[in-house]
Design goal:
- The protein is mostly beta strands.
- It has three domains: 3-87, Roll (SH3 type barrels); 94-147, SH3 type barrels (Roll), CATH 2.30.30; 155-270, endopeptidase fold (from Nostoc punctiforme), CATH 3.90.1720.
- Helix content is 12%, strand content 38%.
- A six-stranded antiparallel sheet has the order 20-25-21-22-23-24.
- α1 (155-161) crosses α2 (179-189).
- The radius of gyration is 19 Å and the shape is globular.
- Belongs to the peptidase C40 family.
- This is NlpC/P60 family protein.
- InterPro entries: NLP_P60_dom (IPR000064), Papain-like_cys_pep_sf (IPR038765), PG_Endopeptidase_C40 (IPR051794), SH3_16 (IPR041382).
- It holds the Pfam family NLPC_P60.
C-alpha cells in the first residue's frame, strides 16, 4: 500500500482499511486548515510531502506530539500536519483566484495586512463592504475571489498566472511550488480532480500516441517531473533548472532533461 494514500498512521487506521490492517479503527474527525499554508509531512516533524492551503478540509485519524495524521479531502493524500494549523473553520464559499492576496484587518487599502493567501485558498465570506469581503480571519478584496463552483476556464492560464513563482520541493502555493504542485493547483482551480504527485498524475486522462500532436493543457511526464503544454512548441513547468515556474520550448526541454540525466519522456496525457 502506498503510504501517501493509505489512511494508517502506524497506530490508528481509517475504517476504510477494515480487515486490511491490524490496528484500532476510526471514522476520524473533520477539520479545516485555518492558517495560510500548512506542510503535510511524512511523519511528525518529518520531511514535507505536500502543502495544504487555508480552508482545505481534512479528516483527522490520529494525533501525536502536537501533530495530527490526516486524510486530505481534495485528493486523499495522507500525512501529518501540525495541530496548530487545524480548526473548526466554516464551510468555504469562495476561493482565491488571484495569484496571491492579503487578509487585512479592516476593509481599506490603507489597513494593515495580516497574512498572505495563495491562489487556491478557500474562505467563507460572511458579508461584503463595497470592494471588500468579510471573513472570520479578516478582509479580502472581492476582486480576488470567485464563488466555489465558479472555476477558472483554462488550467494553463492559471499556471501562467504563477510564472516566476520560486521552485520549492513539495510546494503548492504562490510562495513556492514544484512541478506536480503547479499541475494540481492549475487543474484544481479549473474544477478538475488531480492527485498530488507526478507519478500519480501520470495515470490521469488518456495516454497519447507518438503520432498525436501536443495540445494546450496536455501533461508531459519524465521520471519525477511533469509539465503543462501551452501550445505545440511551448510548455510551462516549475523546475529546478530556473528554480521557478517558467516557459520552455518542448524540444529544448526534452533535449536538456535527457542531456542532464533525466531520461526521455515517459508519457503524455490528455486530461
Amino acid at each position: 500500500m502506498d503510504r501517501r494514500t493509505t489512511p494508517f498512521s502506524g497506530r490508528v487506521a481509517h475504517v476504510s482499511l477494515r480487515d486490511l490492517v491490524a490496528a484500532p479503527l476510526t471514522e476520524g474527525e473533520p477539520a479545516r486548515v485555518v492558517v495560510p499554508l500548512a506542510d503535510l509531512r511524512a511523519a511528525p516533524d518529518g520531511a514535507r510531502d505536500r502543502q495544504l492551503l487555508m480552508g482545505e478540509a481534512v479528516t483527522v485519524i490520529d494525533r501525536d506530539r502536537g501533530h495530527a495524521f490526516v486524510i486530505s479531502e481534495k485528493d486523499g493524500y495522507c500525512g501529518w500536519l501540525a495541530e496548530s494549523t487545524l480548526g473548526d473553520g466554516p464551510e468555504p464559499t469562495h476561493w482565491v483566484m488571484a495569484p496571491a492576496t492579503h487578509l487585512y484587518e479592516a476593509p481599506s487599502v490603507q489597513a494593515r495586512e495580516m497574512v498572505s493567501l495563495s491562489l487556491g485558498s478557500r474562505v467563507a465570506v460572511k458579508g461584503a463592504w463595497g470592494a471588500w469581503a468579510s471573513t472570520d480571519f479578516g478582509y479580502v478584496p472581492v476582486a480576488h475571489l470567485h464563488p466555489v463552483g465558479q472555476w477558472a476556464p483554462d488550467p494553463v492560464l492559471v499556471a501562467e498566472s504563477l510564472l516566476g513563482t520560486p521552485y520549492l520541493w513539495g510546494g503548492n502555493s504562490r510562495f513556492g511550488i514544484d512541478c506536480s504542485g503547479l499541475v494540481q493547483v492549475a487543474l484544481y482551480a479549473a474544477g478538475m480532480a488531480c492527485p498530488g504527485d507526478s507519478d500519480m498524475q501520470m495515470a490521469m486522462g488518456r495516454g497519447l500516441g507518438a503520432e498525436e500532436q501536443p495540445k494546450r493543457g496536455d501533461l508531459v511526464f519524465w521520471k519525477g517531473h511533469v509539465a503543462l503544454v501551452v501550445n505545440q512548441d511551448l510548455l510551462i513547468h516549475a523546475n529546478g533548472h530556473t528554480m521557478s515556474v517558467s516557459y520552455e520550448g518542448i524540444r529544448e526541454a526534452v533535449a536538456r532533461i535527457s542531456a542532464n540525466g533525466g531520461g526521455l519522456v515517459q508519457a503524455r496525457q490528455r486530461v
